[in-house]
Amino acid sequence: MKSSVLPLAGLGMCVLLAGCGAAAVSPQAVSVHHVPKRSARKTAVSHLRASAGLKAHAVTWYRLPLRQRMGQPARIAAMTVQNHRVLLKVVSYIDTANPQVRATRWVTWQAGSLAVGTLMSDASRPAGSSASAYQLLPAAQEGGPARLMDGPAPSLAAWPKAITTYTSLANPAGNQFQIDNEVIGQAGPWIYVALKGPKAPAVSLVGEIWGYRYWNRLVALNVKTGQYRLLALPRSYSETLDYPLWENPPSFAASAHHVYVGVGEWVGVFPENPLSIERSVRHGAPTAALDQARVNTAQRLINTGSWQSVDADAAFWNCYVMKDTSVNACPRGTRYPASLALSQQPTYFNHGSIGFALAWALNLPMDASQASVRRAAVTRFDAALSGSLLMNWIAIDTAAGIRREFPGGPPKPLPGYHRKDRLYWAQSPSGEK
């Protein structure tokens, strides 16, 4: 397992004093240092045991081997501190496109370690909670700041205007604001608020999509003074965990001198006073082989999906609209050809739903050469989605009506096909027509 130290994505503070006004300081980069693999555990423990020394001025993240321990992809679902030890509730999932819970166990964790201890049944769930009465609500008026509430009443400390919150689309809608913003716990006067981002997907498709945001920021806010810290959350890149992590916020626990936050397979250890944090240290990282396997899976999902949509568009026109079975193969006959292709899904055109597997594949970090390959497949995907007749077909619900609307034949070009005699014709492998 690799050990690494990554830069803190953002640090900000606002001290609300009389006459302070908008005194928010933009997030600043902080200095980092490298922790050699052989000394990662020793260094981590020294961070936790230090009380007032410089080594205590860090948030330290540990990527735990939960998949190896549970036998399936797993995430931290809850945390508590008992008898000077941290207990983690771990949920594992069957590794499928639609993950199902396989098992739930509580495990012990020694702070500063890259290993987990004894597995306990879910029935032995320990007591204890660090829940907060505070909640974050959307702005009262469009374009205004989020509202921080203390139970039913407004909080004395306002939500920092410099910190952006988002509201994701969802179907069904529900409480859309809390899909992206949630108070996860409290320690003394400090509340901890998990936020999703980014504002827009790294790689998108035609139209507005949802499901691409993930928990990427943590705000520690003092509800008495208004001081705050804005911190980066590490990301888990497991395809299986993408939806469970989207659906469930990070977990939280607090002891007398530390705060613990769990997200995916990562546990972060924070000092009691978040204002003392100067840097972020991360221990443990996926292997290069696992990183490459995930890139390969993402490329395969996008490439397969794009060609599936292209072929489905051609089949829709040739088989359903033109009723042609003599030249082009239409195994389902001339009725509307049922297809799982995204270009034939009303849920995409009506609600922006592309599925979490595809959202994961579109936004998985890749190097420049890999991203170039993905972009080519996305361009093909865009052509299929732009060429889909679903939006027209919803209003023109008969084949004869579509033929009248487009008397010249297929209205849009499709990759791998040419248009001739009012039909789509597949090009030969050499590109000949």
By DSSP, the count of extended strands is: 18
Beta-strand content bin: 15-25%
User: Order of helices and strands, N to C?
Assistant: HEHEEEEEEEHEEEEHEEEEHHHHHHEE
Report Rg: 26 Å
Outline type: elongated
Q: Total domains, how many? A: 2
Strand order of the largest sheet: 13-14-15-1-16
- pLDDT under 50 segments (min length 5)? 1-55
> Whole-Å distance between the termini?
52 Å
Coarse structural class: alpha+beta
The main pleated sheet reads as: 5 strands, mixed
In DSSP terms, counting alpha (H) and pi (I) runs of 4 or more, how many helices?
A: 10
The overall pLDDT average reads 80
- The helical percent reads 10-25%
Describe, in plain words, how this protein is organized in 3D.
The radius of gyration is 26 Å and the shape is elongated. It has helices at 40-49, 66-70, 176-180, 242-247, 288-321, 346-351, 356-363, 368-387, 390-395, 399-405, and strands spanning 58-63, 74-82, 85-94, 100-109, 119-121, 134-137, 147-150, 153-154, 181-187, 190-197, 214-222, 228-232, 251-254, 258-263, 266-271, 279-283, 417-420, 423-426. Helix 5 crosses helix 7 (356-363) and helix 5 (288-321) packs parallel to helix 8 (368-387). By secondary structure, it is of the alpha+beta class. A five-stranded mixed β-sheet has the order 13-14-15-1-16, with helices on one face. A hairpin with a 3-residue loop joins strand 13 (251-254) and strand 14. It is built from ten helices and 18 strands. The protein has two domains: 37-285, no CATH class; 289-426, no CATH class.
